[in-house]
């Protein structure tokens, strides 16, 4: 990560506002006139490689230099933009101190200003020495409208050409065979054109042109990373209107590739967009990454809103709120599903089997959490994990743990359920199966050749039921082996278990009933359709 946060003391409509950036991707949205492009400029202005001791001669493959053109970012007025009326601060984990930029005179007589590090006018102090690429809207000027456009020779490696072709077709979901690539240079941009069996670079679409420019930017950072190793600390890629010229399918593909390159080559990517689809995907990624402390700062979603003559920054804005503000309405959000968290995959498999008929109303998070982690999140009242945002399924052994029960009794959210029995699913199933007669019909329902011996061939019952971490790991390994090797195994075990006694059947029914009650409480709170409870009473 190059930039941790930005704080804008004053710059046009920005007055004492700031936000944290995502370590991988930051998405900026807002209506027209909310200074999204200006914000990209503020982020990119302090960076340049011109004075870097080793990389000063490097040039990006997409043209220009590793610093952003002043004129692309800022439209300043000699009348209204005066010295001292602009100030912002960049905080970087790679720098000892925050880096504050202010406006100073470039030409006092003409009232022309420039931006420089606050407190010094020394030549070497004006920039932070990290690579930045700013892709302005100039990249969207059609090739055919530039009278100075021409092809030129450029040294690309075979690997780079191969990767370019692969990414180009993947993003655009194209199956055209690319036979040649050409570096295209014009008055306002440098890009990589393609020639196929059917057309040459002169017929490249605006979308192809745009994608080519973005891919070259990614390859530029890749080249720096591979050439300079540890000297390369990462870079910043700024893209104005990422979605422009691209249809939704390509937008989604592009975002995935941006994320992959960001992670692999330490590129901090910031882009603006009006695309509701990109914003929805971004919101989903934000929520997904927040579930794991290791990925919690990867994605950020920012919404800029004009309030009178100032611009407000809404950090961690929800997609629903952003959509309403962009559409200028107040439509209520009506989620179709309730999110479910669990301890592990075994819990999910068993819960899904018990809740057949209601699964379409649930969205299971497949990244499991430990029991202690879930309880900790509940204790700290993290909104995502509390009522009415989600349902949590605990293993049955949690209900028998005195210490964990003590903690849960103090928590008021009450949005969790326990699986039947007081055992973990693995030990519950192993204990039950191991007691079945060898001639029991259960065995043949799994497979004609399924036997006690097959079931416990790699993990015996004693190992599975043993205490400590070794017993826990053996139980999980055994359970997953059965699930992976025998289709419908969980369903068949549960069906046989329910038939074994009226008590077992009652436990299963009670779990479903408790789930419906909890779901309907949530449904009432968030105004979604509840699960209809069928009347089991028969008419006499």
Helix content: 25-40%
What's the oligomerization state?
A: single chain
* DSSP E strands, number: 18
Low-confidence stretches: none
Order of the strands making up the biggest sheet: 7-11-12-3-13-14
Identify the overall geometry. Answer: elongated
Q: What count of domains describes the coordinates?
A: 2
What is the rounded distance between the termini? 71 Å
* CATH topological fold name of the largest domain: Rossmann fold
Structural class comes to alpha/beta
Work out the helix count: 17
Major sheet characteristics = 6 strands, mixed
CATH class of the largest domain: Alpha Beta
The share of residues in extended strands comes to: 15-25%
- The CATH architecture assignment of the largest domain turns out to be 3-Layer(aba) Sandwich
Question: Please, could you describe this protein's structure?
Answer:
With 540 residues, the protein is an alpha/beta fold. The protein folds into two domains: 5-141 and 233-327, Rossmann fold (3-Layer(aba) Sandwich); 338-526, no CATH class. Helices cover 37% and strands 19% of the residues. It has helices at 36-44, 70-73, 158-172, 206-228, 248-265, 276-289, 319-327, 345-354, 371-379, 402-409, 425-434, 442-446, 452-455, 461-465, 468-485, 489-500, 502-526, and strands at 5-11, 14-20, 25-30, 87-91, 99-107, 112-117, 132-135, 150-152, 178-185, 190-196, 235-239, 267-272, 299-307, 310-315, 338-342, 362-364, 390-394, 416-418. The strands form four sheets. A six-stranded mixed beta sheet has the order 7-11-12-3-13-14, with helices on both faces. β15, α8 and β16 (362-364) form a beta-alpha-beta unit. α3 (158-172) packs antiparallel against α5 (248-265) and α16 (489-500) crosses α17 (502-526). The longest helix has 25 residues, at 502-526. The chain is elongated.
